[in-house]
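Weekly structure sync - notes
Attendees: PM, LS, DV (DV joined late)
Agenda: review two folding runs queued last week.

Item 1: First target. Sequence and structure tokens pasted below for the record.
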Amino acid sequence: MSWLHAVNRSAGSNVVQKEWQTTNSAHYRWFTDPVSRLVHPESDHAEQSRLLVADLHGGYTREGGDSRTAELVDALNRESPECAGIWRERPVLGPYCASKRFRQWQVGTLELHCQTLVDPDQFQRLVVYTATPGTESHTSLLLLSMLPITQGTPLSGRP
């Protein structure tokens, strides 16, 4: 059983498009919108913040100072003291994606392992989350696959 999550950093040609991309980035929302953090247990927030900044640092290093990633980093360093502080430490991603815990409002906390597939030419990444068979998280993922899809959740407060 897996949970797919895609992150797409697509190009924008005008200021409105660039602003939309920045504010719709999962990285940007994590540091500027407290509601976005509700999906992870609070005890995991510091580690998640470091992982996101390390990801930005890697993108900035690959793409350079005139890139979309650089624009996002500049915006976050202006708007988020937490992000700016971690950025100064220059964190680096490890070679693998560690287990993560997610809070899901219908089944509780899920502990999932992840694999990352990268398409550097398209600036896309596919992260596949899986649970170990026989665990409570695996059972919860199976249950989620049988529940109807809803528009909003109590955790997000959004439609």
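Item 2: Second target, run right after the first with the same settings.
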Amino acid sequence: MAKPNYQFEKRQRDLAKKSKQEEKRRQKLAAKAAGESGAETGDDADADASPGDSAAAGADETPSNA
């Protein structure tokens, strides 16, 4: 009967573990990128509207106070 090659088995386990971790890392990056791009689009739309409104309101209020 042949002896088990423990080094080969360990190497295979390590490779599987490493590939699984790499796949998880890629999924996290993809989710983060998708989340950021979606959040940025929403934030940019809100940010564009808010400063314009705030600037106009601020400009109107400043001469009144002065």
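Discussion on item 2: The helical segments are 6-65.
Action: LS to circulate a short write-up before next sync.
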